[in-house]
């Protein structure tokens, strides 16, 4: 099998370049990474736990938040619109933005479990 791994540490890419490439990749997918068909269920599940549930941070980027300032919350703020692509022309999507962001934050925190 081919090795599709890429060691970014040996490349001369800035963090912004890598983040921009990731956002571009996810925004060009035919359907968001979090499929539209699952978004309603995720919002409903989130509403059953008001105040949210906190889990230990698992993402390697957010694990180094003291150095890079990118906590799981900050990462989710940057990436939730690209990963979920809500229809902002509806009032439901506008009122659920915090919920969408929290769902992505939980995915980041629980990365080993989900992925």
Automatic annotation (TrEMBL):
<dbReference type="Pfam" id="PF00620">
    <property type="entry name" value="RhoGAP"/>
</dbReference>
<dbReference type="GO" id="GO:0050770">
    <property type="term" value="P:regulation of axonogenesis"/>
</dbReference>
<dbReference type="GO" id="GO:0005829">
    <property type="term" value="C:cytosol"/>
</dbReference>
<dbReference type="GO" id="GO:0007266">
    <property type="term" value="P:Rho protein signal transduction"/>
</dbReference>
<protein>
    <submittedName>
        <fullName>RHG35 protein</fullName>
    </submittedName>
</protein>
<dbReference type="InterPro" id="IPR008936">
    <property type="entry name" value="Rho_GTPase_activation_prot"/>
</dbReference>
<feature type="domain" description="Rho-GAP">
    <location>
        <begin position="1"/>
        <end position="115"/>
    </location>
</feature>
<dbReference type="GO" id="GO:0008361">
    <property type="term" value="P:regulation of cell size"/>
</dbReference>
<dbReference type="GO" id="GO:0005096">
    <property type="term" value="F:GTPase activator activity"/>
</dbReference>
<dbReference type="InterPro" id="IPR000198">
    <property type="entry name" value="RhoGAP_dom"/>
</dbReference>
<dbReference type="InterPro" id="IPR051978">
    <property type="entry name" value="Rho-GAP_domain"/>
</dbReference>
């Amino acid at each position: 099998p081919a090795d599709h791994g890429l060691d970014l540490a040996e490349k001369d890419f800035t963090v912004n370049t890598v983040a921009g490439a990731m956002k571009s990749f996810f925004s060009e997918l035919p359907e968001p990474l979090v499929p539209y068909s699952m978004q309603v269920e995720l919002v409903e599940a989130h509403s059953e736990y008001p105040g949210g549930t906190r889990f230990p941070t698992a993402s390697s980027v957010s694990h180094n938040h003291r150095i890079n300032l990118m906590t799981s919350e900050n990462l989710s703020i940057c990436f939730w619109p690209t990963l979920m692509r809500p229809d902002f022309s509806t009032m439901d999507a506008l009122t659920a933005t915090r919920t969408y962001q929290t769902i992505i934050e939980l995915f980041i925190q629980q990365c080993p479990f989900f992925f």
